Amino acid sequence: MTAPLIAFDKVWKTYGEGEARVDALAGVDFSISPGEFVAIMGPSGSGKSTAMNIIGCLDTPTGGVYRFAGVDAGRLDRGRRAILRNLYIGFVFQGYNLLPRTTAIENVELPLVYRGVPARKRRELAYAALAQVGLQGREDHTPAELSGGQQQRVAIARAIVSTPMLLLADEPTGNLDTQRSHEIMELLQTLNRERGLTIAMVTHEADIAGFASRTVRFVDGHVASDSALSEAA
Amino acid sequence: MFAETVLLAFLSIRRNKMRSFLTLLGIVIGVAAVIAMITIGAGTTTKVKQDIGKLGSNLLIVRSGTPPSPGQSGTPARAMTDREARALKNGLPDARSVAAQSQKAMTVVFGTESIVAQVVGADADYFDARDWVMSTGRPFGEAEERSGLSLCAIGETVRKQFFGGDDGLGANIRVGKTPCRVIGVLEAKGTSSFGQDQDATVIMPLTAFQRRISGSSDVDTIFVAGGEGGVMADLQNAAEDILRDVRHVRPTEDDDFNVRDMTQIADAMASTTKVMSGMLGAVAAVSLLVGGIGIMNIMLVSVTERTREIGIRLAIGAQERHILVQFLVEATVLSALGGVAGVGLGLFLSWLASYFTGIPFEPDISTVALAVGFSAVIGMVFGFFPALRGARLDPIDALRHE
Question: Are residues B214 and B242 in the same domain?
């Protein structure tokens, strides 16, 4: 068995103190191996978003150990986590989160700007990434000139332009109709199969989760079920 | 990377044209005020120096009364007479000329025309001491002065009023009730820094003036012009000794007269105008500070408005310093733009002022550079806090921000 890319070892995330204390994650154990496509499900307040933020190195656990590619990411400072995100993690959000009044190509280039890639090389990579998500010819459109599905494709291009180890998708189809949702999911599937890109995706729609190869369900800060474990059993 | 950040700042400024313009306005007005005040101030200083130079250089001015001290005019004392003038003339062989003068503003009439002019009764030496040059005709001589003849030299303004294109030599004008023959016309000197037309003047022999117009032998002022290469301070001391002697001032008493060096007066006036323009500049600098606070305000708004953008940038791997630099550069570019526009406006205003008042237009490169630099620094200082606030945002909260 290969070493996991994502490894939660009794991870706790606690907000507040005393009476107001809330355990968003209460000793979560689970891992994701390279090349997996995992759907993370659960009702709101189940801790799935908190887990997502920790996986994405946006947040740190208050207890336990979170390892990203073997690195104890929970102990890294803000700056180092930013570098980790920049180099190894691509983000896709529900609300697309593209920079407004900025062209598609410039949006896609953004992670490379912070990586210090020279302008010419950046443009080249960004063109390739946009082509991969099927947006040739739309490079100079601003988000306002693109449909929701197209905006999400730009966001995916931005996430993969830096050839990350992990793509994190937070309800990537939450703002899209069924047909567009399925198109986006097929795109993610293709990226997972053809490039071996590891994908972790939060969703609360069962049919969307069905595109993933594994489903992890969170309830009350615990992993309630994991399809990988039940299959093995 | 830095060039890109600057470009990004320009784009962001252009995106919010109206807001950027209003923010700029504070800096523009501040810088324009500073530039205008300093430029006009420098011009005024030069003008004052020039004007006083016109009164004659190397000149001592002797008047009765104790010298005026700051905030206090001198105490009046016995008027001076011909006696003092004669004593100075005899006692100061080094002086180029010594001239006594009395004057009075009077209506001067020729035919149906009349004009109010400074009527000056003076020694023959007066023309030399005050650097008056004849454009036509001649000045009166010493013999003519002593004889009490009623002759006069007229200023350019008077000549124009009475004779138009003609020189007016030989004509009889009336000074008050006294008829007076014109023998010379003075070359124009223009307006003094006190706004007085120096050419609205009639100069006549002192004897005639005392007998026919003032009716006393009093003298207002004695001018002592220094010779070539003479030390003015020595001349001043000598003049003071003579005057104490003639006016019987006891050794324990203070002078009841004052001798002042024209260059001292010029310097004093120039430094006064300098202080004034410096103070006005300081007041203007306060408005620049207010402009800086405007920048801080708008940058805070900008950071809040773009919280989500900051969140996106942080999520995809921007470091704190990237965000900090981005907003800092934006604030600096904004205020430097304001500084450049302010310099333009300030120079234009001071040019306008010089065009209408005749004050020399003296733009100063170092002031301009300083103002632009200072406004950029203001942007940096007042932009720092908002930029830091943006950079310290938590990416999760920032992304959730609506």
Answer: yes
State the Cα angle at A15 between A13 and A20, rounded to 5°.
135
Domain that holds residue B317: 2-51+267-400
Which of B285, B390, B281, B294 has the alpha carbon at shortest distance from B334? Answer: B294
Are the Cβ atoms of B313 and A53 closer than 8 angstroms? no
Residue-range domain boundaries for chain A = 37-42+79-232
B354-382 burial, b if ≥16 CB within 10 A, otherwise e?
beeeebebbbeeebbeebbebbbebbbbb
pLDDT tens for chain B, 402 residues long, are 677 788 878 877 887 788 888 888 888 988 898 888 888 888 888 887 777 766 666 788 888 887 666 555 666 678 888 888 888 888 888 888 888 889 889 999 998 888 999 999 998 888 888 878 898 888 988 888 888 888 999 999 999 989 888 888 888 999 988 899 999 999 888 777 667 788 899 999 998 898 888 888 888 888 888 877 667 788 888 888 888 888 888 888 888 888 888 777 777 777 888 888 888 888 888 888 888 888 888 888 888 988 999 999 999 989 999 999 999 998 888 888 899 999 999 999 999 988 888 788 888 888 888 888 888 888 888 999 999 999 999 999 998 887
| Contact at CB, A85 and B315, closer than 8 angstroms | yes
- Cα–Cα distance, B192 to B269 (Å, whole number): 13
Question: Which ipTM was obtained for this model?
Answer: 0.92
Q: How far is CA B52 from CA A217, B194, B235, B276, B324, in A?
A: 94, 10, 20, 18, 56
DSSP string, B262-282: HHHHHHHHHHHHHHHHHHHHH
Q: Is the separation of the CB atoms in A14 and A23 below 8 Å?
A: yes
Strands B113-122 and A166-170: unpaired
Last residue of a domain, one of B231, B255, B279: B255
B332 and B375 co-located in one domain: yes
For domain A37-42+79-232, the question of CATH label 3.30.360.10 is answered with: no
Best residue in A102, A113, A151 for a mutation probing chain B (most B CBs within 10 Å) = A113
Measured CA to CA, the distance from residue B393 to residue B402 in angstroms comes to 14
Give A232→chain B minimum CA distance, Å. Answer: 35
A110 in contact with chain B, both atoms CB, cutoff 8 A: yes
Identity (one letter) of the amino acid at B318? A
If one counts every other C-beta atom within 10 angstroms of the C-beta of residue A91, the result is: 26
Which of B 313-342 lie inside 8 A of A, CB atoms?
313-320, 322
Distance between CA atoms of B161 and B146, rounded to whole angstroms? Answer: 30
Within a domain: B25: yes
Q: What region, left, alpha or beta, does residue B360 occupy, with left being phi > 0 and alpha being psi -120 to 50 degrees?
A: beta
In eight-state DSSP terms, residue B224 is E
Size (chain B), residues: 402
